[in-house]
Structure formats: structure tokens, C-alpha cells
Design goal:
- The complex is a heterodimer of chains A (about 325) and B (about 350).
- Chain A has two domains: about 5-180, Thiamin diphosphate (ThDP)-binding fold, Pyr/PP domains (Rossmann fold, 3-Layer(aba) Sandwich); about 195-325, Rossmann fold, CATH 3.40.50.920.
- Helices cover about 35% and strands about 20% of the residues of chain A.
- Chain A contains twelve helices and 14 strands.
- Chain B is built from twelve helices and eight strands.
- The model of chain B has no long low-confidence stretch (mean pLDDT about 95).
- The relative contact order of chain B is 0.16.
- Chain B has a single domain, classed as Rossmann fold (3-Layer(aba) Sandwich).
- In chain B, helix 6 links the parallel strand 3 and strand 4 (about 175-180).
- Chain B is of the alpha/beta class and about 350 residues long.
- Chain B is about 40% helix and about 10% strand.
- In chain B, strands 2-1-3-4-8-7 form a six-stranded parallel β-sheet, sandwiched between helices. A two-stranded antiparallel ribbon of chain B has the order 5-6.
- In chain B, helix 1 packs antiparallel against helix 10 (about 270-280) and helix 1 runs parallel beside helix 11 (about 280-305).
- Classes of the chains: A alpha/beta (about 325), B alpha/beta (about 350).
- At the A-B interface, helix 3, helix 4 and helix 5 of A face helix 5, helix 6 and helix 12 of B.
């Protein structure tokens, strides 16, 4: 199998979908001539023309609103918001319009669009270009939410997202664009379901996006004395938590690892669900390991310290399973 | 006895047909008010378009395949585009028989078949959707036009200017129609706009723009002809209809912020009265009036008699039916606590 990057896998998903379906269009700031802020859409303007790859003004609410109208009338737009932080600009169109149209209109009018964006830390992009705002999307019924953490998922989840009858927020991670991997011939799990990335009996870790990679690294270091089962949630809204609960009922321990600010987060929601559904099977409380409750600082030193990494995941996992406290807990 | 010109009828006189549509709108809105007083409406967030019926002068240029979005004061526009008043009133009453099965109500009424992409309760919220409908028309090669209807309050929202710029930039078949009823809730337009020449704002973006007298449906019709047909040819446009909101913002609002003298003056700008004076055939007009009143009475009675939706329908249509419906809280609680019993 040939290796490709997360970025190229995303571009291939877009171009394959555009080849297969004339109604698929791209629109966003710098998606055409510039080729996308992170190069994902490079070459697509030349290939598909300006009616299908639409460079927009810097008007995030307007371009998302236009995508909604195009979706309502028969196209399949993929709108790009360059950074998920700009959700602050578009939450009316996303949360009040796209998410609620089908429901408010009694099922008559769906909004089959994808909002592509990227988030996360790693580039010293500071507080307005580094956030993980998936909880805003998960808190909104009517939106679907997918966050790929592997190269194969970058391709397959995006292809699946473009086939959905409802709006999908698709959040890539800026720290993964150059990651290499293989695109498997079939998806690792069906759309909407988590993928089990590693089997183990001592501890379940639920995670997604770039933290999947950090968690996999930590799991290698923990083995063989501690075997972790890693659940990649992939599709966060609606969330299929069945495989996670099955896993926690086997291992009796659960950690949720995310990059987002911990308070009010996806991790908090999952911890609550595990508590409700696995209470009698738990040896320890479900544990959230997330970003600190702070805006993301610019200094690389501070930025790295603001979110978990493989070393911290390993330390906390060991503490949870063996009661062996890390040095900083003294 | 023979006459040189055939008698004026609904079939051969478009002006009479426009009067009839305006009268149906007014009668409809009066029934909305009545349903509220009877306690049969879903809530009091009911925004009547009485005084704004001359919008018919624009909607008369729209045809099958055209689409539109409206603001929260959009009953009349939807009716003019062919809505069934019973299903509208049923929706306003939160009934299963309503256009949106009792999920949307007055402020979120829609019908894909009639091109209504949705009324909106966020000021300006539906405006950019017509830009997307314009992209669809362009890419699929139809001559459909898409019209965003909003009020003078919408002129304060930034998204309007984003949408006008995109429509002009991409030469889309789109019309922006501002029904200026002089008030955004309790704020008169001279307290919200630094300069009230709204068409000039649209012209600044490269749109063809006009203002028409909202007391005269024929003036609106004439002005809208060039705007709508120009849009079909890829020259997006803007039309301001200068009107007066006869009643309060919503049903609970008695308009304490304006004087009785102002209201009396404003209500003299009545598009129905203007049309009647021009058309002059009282017998025919009285027949039209009586038929409209009877139609709306019948619609209201049927809407009130229609049943409420079953409670479990609340979980439907959050997503397409291919996605499992959200789980009811009682089912979740039963699973958590039932197993522990």
C-alpha cells in the first residue's frame, strides 16, 4: 500500500466526490486560487472550474449561509471555514439555521452540506487560531460532527460526510496534515461508529483527532504491563457510545483524552455517560484528561503545557491502573 | 346590449387579482389575531403584516421554481406565493396538520414545494440562503430567481451586506426585498439608521436598486418588474417597499412608543384602500372581500379543530430518518436506574 498524507487524503476525498457527483461544490476563503490555507484544495480550481470551486470574500457567516441555501436547493456544498475558531462568526448560520431547518420545517427541508474546518494546537497560532470547539457542535442537535485522527479516516470520513443528508461539521487537525499513512480500501468502521484502534484488558481510553496518535504512543510505552483498549470516537454527534460502554464493562477503567478545554467538554459528556451506564462495573471514577481551562498561549513552551501529550497520558494511565503516582503528584 | 370593452373580472384584470391577494392577506392576518384571542395560537409571537400587503406587487413577478426566504413577519408573502391558509393557521396553532407539523410555527413556516425555504426568527438569518439558491440556479442552468424578504430591522445586520456583496460579485439571480414598515420592534427607523436611503446602500454594492410606495401595489409591481427580471438575467437587485406597520410588533405589543396621531397618519397609507379607489367597482370588490372573509373563517375553524401532534413526534426530524432518532430521556433514565433496582 502506498503512503499518503492526511492532507492529500482529504484532497483525494474532495476530488473523488466531485468527479462522482456534479452537485458537489467547494466554497470558502482561499479554497481556489490559493489552494487552501493548508493546501488541502490545491489544484481543484483548475480541475473543476470557478463555478464549483468558489473563492469567497472574507464573509464567514455569509458563505456558510450561502452554502445552506445551495444545500436546500439541491447542491452538495462543502463550505470551508479556515479555522474552527471562526465558529464565533458563524454559529447563527450553523446552529440556528443549518442545524434546525429540518426540524423546524417538519422534515421537509434538509441541509446536506459539509462544513470543513480545522482546529487544535501545535503551530503557536495563539488563542484565536488554536481552539478545539467540538463541544459547541456536539451541544447542537441537528449537526453531525466528525473528527478524523488517521489518514484513512481523513479520506473515508470526508467521503461519508459528503453523502449525509444533514449538515456535517468536519474538523481536521492542523497538526496532522503532514502525517503519513495508508488509505484502507474500506473504512475502519461504518460512518457514525467508533473504531477500536487497539485491544487491551486493563484500561479503556476514549479519544479522537490528534490525541488518538498521542494515546497510541502512550499505549506502546504502557505495554505489556498495562494493556489499553483505545476507542477512536471519530463521529461525535450523534455519538454511538455502545462500543465504548462494552469496553469499559470489560476493563472497569476509563480515561477520556482530548485536546479541548476540559470544563463543559466532550470528555465531560463521555465521563457522565460512562458513570451512568457503567457504574456497577467501574473500579475507578471515569477520568478526564484534557486541555487546561485556559486560552491557548502563543509561547511554544506554554502551548505544549496547555494540552496532554503521550508522556502525560502514560503517567495518568499508569496512576489510574496501578495507583503509582507520577512525580508531580507528590 | 353589448359593450366595447369586456367587464373587468379576476381572470382578465391582474390589478383585481392583486387586490384579492392583498385582501386575503389582511383577512388571514385578522384570523391570526383572532386565534390568539381565542387562545388557539401557539404562543403570542405572532407578527402581523397588516399594512404591508403591497408586497404582492413583487410576488406577482415570481413563478414556479422561484424560491424565497422571509423574516418573522412573512405570513402575507407565503400566502401570496400560494400557501393554503388552513395549513398556515394550523401551523400557527401548533397543529399536526400545519406546514411543519407543529414544529416551526409562525416564525419558521416553510414549504419546499412552493419554494419557501423558511421564515426566520433571527433577524437577517435567512438572507444569505438566497445567495446559495442563486448558485444552484446558476450551476444548474435554470432561470429561477430567489428573493430574500426582510424588514428595516434587517438593514442593521452585517450578513445582509455580506450577501449583497456575494450576489453582486457572482452576478446571481437574487433579489433583496426590504419591507420597511418603519419599525424594528419598538425602534423607529430614524433611531436605527444613520442614513435612511436604503437603495443607495445596495447600489454601493453594485446592485440595481429602487424604492416603491408601499401604499400602492401597482407602484410596487412596476418597480419590481425591472428588479426581478434583471435578477433573472444575472443582475441582482434590491427593492425597498415603503410601508407602515399598522399594529404592534407582536400580539402583546400595544405600541406605547408611538403616538395615536402617528398611527392614524400611518394607517392612511393603506394599500387596500388605494387599490379600491383605483378599481372603483364596489360590487365586485365587495364580493371579493366577502369571499376572502369566508375563506379565512373556514380555514380558521378547520385549523382550530385540527389535533395537536402526538408527543413522540418531537423526536422526529432532528436528522434524516436514516439516522436513529434521539433517545428519549425517560428511556435513558429507565436504563440507568431500572438495572439498579
Amino acid at each position: 500500500m502506498t503512503q499518503t498524507t492526511y492532507r492529500d487524503a482529504l484532497r483525494l476525498a474532495l476530488s473523488d466526490a466531485m468527479e462522482a457527483d456534479e452537485s458537489v461544490i467547494l466554497m470558502g476563503e482561499e479554497v481556489g486560487l490559493y489552494g487552501g490555507a493548508y493546501g488541502v484544495t490545491k489544484g481543484l480550481l483548475e480541475r473543476f472550474g470557478a463555478n464549483r470551486v468558489i473563492d469567497t470574500p472574507i464573509s464567514e457567516p455569509g458563505l456558510v449561509g450561502a452554502a445552506i441555501g445551495a444545500a436546500m436547493t439541491g447542491l452538495r456544498p462543502v463550505a470551508e471555514i479556515m479555522y474552527v475558531d471562526f465558529a464565533g462568526m458563524v454559529m447563527d448560520q450553523l446552529g440556528n439555521q443549518a442545524a434546525k431547518s429540518r426540524y423546524m420545517f417538519g422534515g421537509q427541508i434538509g441541509v446536506p452540506m459539509v462544513l470543513r474546518t480545522q482546529g487544535g494546537t501545535g503551530r503557536s497560532a495563539a488563542a484565536q487560531h488554536s481552539q478545539s470547539l467540538e463541544a459547541w457542535m456536539m451541544h447542537t442537535p441537528g449537526l453531525r460532527l466528525a473528527m478524523p485522527g488517521t489518514v484513512s479516516d481523513a479520506y473515508h470520513l470526508l467521503r461519508d460526510a459528503m453523502r449525509q443528508p444533514d449538515p456535517v461539521v468536519f474538523i481536521e487537525h492542523k497538526g496532522l496534515y503532514t502525517m503519513k499513512g495508508e488509505i484502507s480500501t474500506t473504512p475502519d468502521a461504518p460512518w457514525g461508529q467508533p473504531a477500536i484502534r487497539r485491544r487491551g484488558g486493563n484500561l479503556t481510553i476514549a479519544t479522537y483527532s490528534r490525541m488518538l496518535q498521542e494515546t497510541l504512543t502512550a499505549a506502546e510505552a504502557l505495554a505489556p504491563s498495562i494493556e489499553t483498549e483505545i476507542i477512536d470516537l471519530r463521529c461525535l454527534n450523534p455519538l454511538d457510545d455502545g462500543p465504548l460502554m462494552d469496553s469499559v464493562r470489560r476493563t472497569g477503567r476509563c480515561m477520556i483524552v482530548t485536546e479541548a478545554v476540559t470544563t463543559g467538554s466532550v470528555a465531560s459528556e463521555i465521563a457522565a455517560r460512562v458513570t451512568e451506564q457503567c457504574f456497577d462495573w467501574l473500579e475507578e471514577p471515569p477520568l478526564r484528561l484534557g486541555g487546561e481551562d485556559i486560552p491557548i498561549p502563543v509561547s511554544p513552551t506554554l502551548e505544549r503545557a496547555a494540552i496532554p501529550d503521550a508522556v502525560l497520558i502514560e503517567q495518568v494511565a499508569r496512576w489510574l491502573v496501578t495507583r503509582e503516582a507520577p512525580s508531580w503528584a507528590a | 346590449m353589448t359593450s366595447a370593452t369586456p367587464p373587468v373580472t379576476l381572470a382578465n384584470d391582474a390589478r383585481l387579482a392583486r387586490y384579492r391577494t392583498m385582501k386575503r392577506i389582511r383577512s388571514f392576518e385578522e384570523r391570526v389575531g383572532e386565534m390568539f384571542l381565542k387562545g388557539e395560537s401557539a404562543g403570542s409571537m405572532l407578527h402581523l403584516s397588516i399594512g404591508e400587503e403591497a408586497v404582492v406587487g413583487l410576488t406577482d413577478h415570481m413563478t414556479e421554481g422561484d424560491t424565497f426566504t422571509t423574516h418573522h413577519r412573512g405570513h402575507g408573502i407565503f400566502l401570496a406565493r400560494g400557501a393554503d391558509p388552513m395549513r398556515m393557521l394550523a401551523e400557527i396553532g401548533g397543529r399536526e396538520a400545519g406546514y411543519c407539523r407543529g414544529k416551526g410555527g409562525s416564525m419558521h413556516i416553510a414549504d419546499r414545494g412552493l419554494g419557501h425555504l423558511g421564515a426566520n426568527a433571527i433577524v437577517g438569518g435567512g438572507i444569505p440562503h438566497v445567495v446559495g439558491a442563486g448558485i444552484t440556479a446558476r450551476n444548474t442552468g435554470t432561470r429561477s430567481v430567489s428573493v430574500a424578504f426582510f424588514g428595516d430591522g434587517g438593514m442593521g445586520q452585517g450578513i445582509l451586506y455580506e450577501a449583497m456583496n456575494m450576489a453582486a460579485l457572482w452576478k446571481l439571480p437574487v433579489v433583496f426585498c426590504c419591507i420597511n414598515n418603519q419599525y424594528g420592534m419598538g425602534t423607529r427607523v430614524d433611531r436605527s439608521a444613520g442614513r435612511q436611503d436604503f437603495p443607495s446602500r445596495a447600489e454601493a454594492f453594485g446592485l440595481q436598486a429602487a424604492r416603491a410606495d408601499g401604499a400602492d401595489v401597482e407602484a410596487v409591481h412596476t418597480a419590481a418588474a425591472a428588479i426581478v427580471e434583471g435578477a433573472r438575467d444575472g443582475r441582482p437587485g434590491f427593492l425597498e417597499i415603503d410601508a407602515y406597520r399598522f399594529h404592534g410588533h407582536a400580539r402583546m405589543d400595544k405600541s406605547p412608543y408611538r403616538t395615536p396621531e402617528e398611527e392614524e397618519e400611518g394607517r392612511r397609507r393603506d394599500p387596500l384602500a388605494t387599490a379600491r379607489a383605483v378599481l372603483a367597482d364596489d360590487t365586485l370588490l365587495n364580493t371579493i372581500d366577502a369571499e376572502a372573509e369566508a375563506e379565512m373563517d373556514k380555514a380558521m375553524i378547520a385549523a382550530i379543530a385540527a389535533p395537536a401532534p402526538a408527543a413522540d413526534t418531537m423526536f422526529q426530524d432532528v436528522y434524516d430518518p436514516s439516522t436513529p432518532a434521539p433517545r428519549a430521556q425517560r428511556a435513558r433514565l429507565t436504563e440507568v436506574l431500572g438495572e439498579r433496582a
